[in-house]
Amino acid sequence: MRITLSLLRVVPVLALCIILSSTTLLAGQQVLRFLKPQKKDLKPAIVLTAFGTSTKAQKTFDFMDHEIRKAFPGYEIRWAFTSQIIRNKMNAIYKKKNINKRLYSLPEVLASLKADGYRKAVVQSLHVFPGAEYMHMINQAHMDGMSISIGEPLVSQWEEVHELLKGISKDFLKAGEGCNVFAGHGSPNTYNAPSTAVYLAFDRLLSVHYPNCFLGSVEGVPDRKDALDRAKRCNGDKVRMIPFMLVAGDHIMNDIMGKEPDEEGEVSWALELERAGKKVSCPQITINGEKLYKGLGFYHVTNEIIIEHIKQALADL
Q1: Which of 127, 162, 211, 303 could make an S-S bridge to 153, C-beta 3.0–4.6 Å?
Q2: 45-155+298-316: which CATH number, 3.30.1360.70, 3.20.20.10, 3.40.50.1400, 1.10.20.10?
Q3: Are residues 283 and 293 in contact, defined by beta-carbon separation less than 8 angstroms?
Q4: What are 262-273's pLDDT values in tens digits?
Q5: Helix (H, G, I), strand (E, B), or coil: what is residue 96?
Q6: What span, in angstroms and rounded, lies between the C-alpha atoms of 204 and 200?
Q7: Which of 235, 209, 214 is nearest to 226 (CA)?
Q8: Backbone torsion region of residue 102, taken as left when φ is above 0, otherwise alpha when ψ lies between -120 and 50, otherwise beta
Q9: Predicted model pTM
Q10: Rg (CA), the chain
């Protein structure tokens, strides 16, 4: 009888505990549902991924952003910058000037998109050649729970190379006037990236189709000496520097077109040629009353090629 009474007392307590536990579990599930990003029926996001710049050439990105957004209305478009040095420098400047802006890395942008409910994204390369920075971008372009497609760099198909050259050739000096030196970035290493072979093949293509055009690179081959020696020997007294970089930033402003020797006494490409008797120029563009050197990002043909690469990447998702 005592056992029965004890059981009668215990059973209601157990039942109450079960009810309370179930209620707590249900409440916990509701909290988890609230905290967990919800899948949404959203278009894939587009992440424009560039090395970055800390110069006024940032306006190139603004121009490209406008062109690309026109081509993809209704899509979420965000920017990522792979250079930590550039991000740190610009974010410190924004903070000091109380500017409500921040540069983010590719992993940060992908994490933010996932938190906002996106499950598909195109990571579009804003690199010219498939160099070390492009490979670095590919290594970072992943996020658990997201399907990600990679958009190819600007120079990825030889047919597009010819299209690009045709589009920018309006800024070339004609053969009778002088020569053009393509100023590329170049790849400093001989491994990990196919860009060195592409640079050499591109230089060969120029020599066949544009005999008064030469390729040089800041960090790689063909190098500065190779390009400038050929420019000094070319017919005519004019040399035009063609920035073969998406953004004509620090390298173009200082290494290529600098007006004064640097701290170590090294002169720019332009100064060396001027001392050799050449008249040096560089294509420019005026944006909101300010003159800027014309990087590839300012040409409509460049943006058309990149837009096509984004479409191809979207189709792969």
Answers
A1: 127
A2: 3.40.50.1400
A3: yes
A4: 888 899 999 999
A5: helix
A6: 6
A7: 214
A8: beta
A9: 0.85
A10: 28
User: How many CA within 13 A on the CB side of residue 70?
Assistant: 10
In the numeric block, the tokens 């990087």 are attached to 295
Distance CA 55, CA 289 (A): 17
Query: What's the whole-number mean pLDDT along residues 174-202?
Result: 87
Closest by CA to 45, choosing from 116, 122, 117, 102, is 122
Fold entry, domain 158-297: Rossmann fold (3.40.50)
The Cβ of residue 238 has, within 10 Å, a number of other Cβ atoms equal to: 17
Whether the predicted pLDDT of 34 surpasses 50: no
**Could you give the residue range(s) of every CATH 3.40.50.1400 domain in the chain?**
45-155+298-316, 158-297
The 10s digit of each residue's pLDDT in 51-104 is 999 999 999 999 999 999 999 999 999 999 999 999 999 999 999 999 999 999
